[in-house]
Write a structure and sequence with these properties.
It is a single chain. 43% of the residues lie in helices and 5% in strands. The chain has three helices and two strands, in the order E-E-H-H-H. The chain has a two-stranded antiparallel ribbon with strand order 1-2.
Length: 81
Amino acid sequence: MTIPEELRHVLDSHPEIISGAARFKGTRVPVQALLDTLTHGLPVSDFLEGFPDVTEEQALAVVAWEQNQARKTFGLQLTSV
């Protein structure tokens, strides 16, 4: 698992922790949990309520990074992560 450079301050991955899935630093919370929350149309605040060990800064950094991937694809201006 390779963590993008822009997210190394908020994410981590280790083969012995949750099978190497990308997770929020200092937690066992996988990034997939945030993405699933957003996919179901729920706000980041709902995710943060369910996973209080994840900071708002961590969650929003992932959201901004994901949005920038789409912005790059469509040639739009990037937001700061």
